[in-house]
Amino acid sequence: MLRTCAKRLRTLGSPLGQPGAQRRSFSSEKFIHKDYALPNPSWSKDLRLLFDQFMKKCEDGSWKRLPSYRQNFPEKIQEFQTLYLDSSLAKGEQHAQQFPRSLDVGLGFEYVMFCNDVERKVLCFLQVGPHLQGTPGFVHGGAIATMIDSTTGMCAFRAGGIVMTANLNINFRSPIPLCSVVVVDSQLDKVEGRKVFVSCNVRSVDKKTLHSEATGLFIKLDPDKSLKK
Ligand SMILES: CCCCC/C=C\C/C=C\C/C=C\C/C=C\CCCC(=O)SCCNC(=O)CCNC(=O)[C@H](O)C(C)(C)COP(=O)(O)OP(=O)(O)OC[C@H]1O[C@@H](n2cnc3c(N)ncnc32)[C@H](O)[C@@H]1OP(=O)(O)O
């Protein structure tokens, strides 16, 4: 698995695959607002197959592919700041990036999310790159938690708007091999006032292996209470 992964990374033909290509274009708008939830040469056959399968499901409108950017659009940040922050953004934060998208292409998290708002589900197809190692050969628990947080967070966001994670409870059942593809499957359980409850499991593509199970509690932010910086 690791050898296949290394080979794929070595043979990346696109400009994104060339070392330094991302750094060079860091400040360009095109780079910042590129949609990363689309296939790139680092994607394995498994990830491509899942992507193609769900793009077909999008044709009747039941499922939607969620685009994904490294940085929030400035107007979104402005809106968030106006509603929830009591101090202005510090200079450095204008270059802030979404953590799961901040690693070089193919080395960290390669993923695409699809949502079904009727079924209140968000699925994330995730390929875990070689820079996410914990125990040798396997994925770091913090990396798994990151994607569980992001997927359940998206599920809560679609139901409740702007939310923050208040509690995340994860059981790690079996280790995830580095460079493999897994499915993070999240489901909205209930909404009680400002509390949004989501559950989630992480399985292998053939569904035979349960890697992790989790529950999350998300709280809808209250515009009357600013987040302190
Ligand atoms: C920047 C631009 C943004 C633009 C956004 C645009 C689009 C967004 C797009 C997509 C989003 C999609 C995906 C999300 C992606 C990633 C997800 C990552 C999310 C995170 O990674 S986020 C970081 C970690 N997260 C924190 O850093 C939170 C720290 N925390 C706090 O900031 C506060 O804690 C807060 C705000 C959570 C609540 O504070 P608060 O003052 O508003 O509310 P309060 O405390 O009154 O709680 C209300 C009721 O919830 C109960 N409650 C609260 N906490 C509980 C707990 N832990 N367990 C059990 N019950 C709890 C209370 O008991 C009460 O219950 P009751 O009403 O029944 O008494």
Instruction: Determine the structural class based on helices, strands and strand pairing.
Output: alpha+beta
**Helix/strand order:** HHHHEHEEHEEEE
Overall pLDDT score: 87
| CATH class descriptor | Alpha Beta
Tell me the number of structural domains. 1
Number of H- or I-type helical stretches = 6
Going across the biggest sheet, name each strand in turn. 1-2-3-5-6-7-4
Portion in beta strands: 25-35%
CATH architectural category:
Roll
What is the CATH topology classification name?
Answer: Thiol Ester Dehydrase, Chain A
N- to C-terminal distance: 43 Å
- The number of distinct β-strands equals 7
CATH superfamily: Hotdog Thioesterase
Q: How would you describe the overall organization of this protein?
A:
Residues 137-208 form the Thioesterase domain. With 229 residues, the chain is of the alpha+beta class. Helices cover 27% and strands 27% of the residues. The protein contains six helices and seven strands. It has helices at 2-10, 21-24, 29-32, 45-57, 74-84, 141-160; strands spanning 64-66, 109-116, 121-128, 163-172, 181-192, 195-204, 210-220. It has a seven-stranded antiparallel sheet with strand order 1-2-3-5-6-7-4. It binds ligand 3IX. Ligand 3IX binds at residues 72, 76-77, 80, 149-150, 153-154, 157, 162, 164-167, 194-195, 217, 219, 221-222, 225.
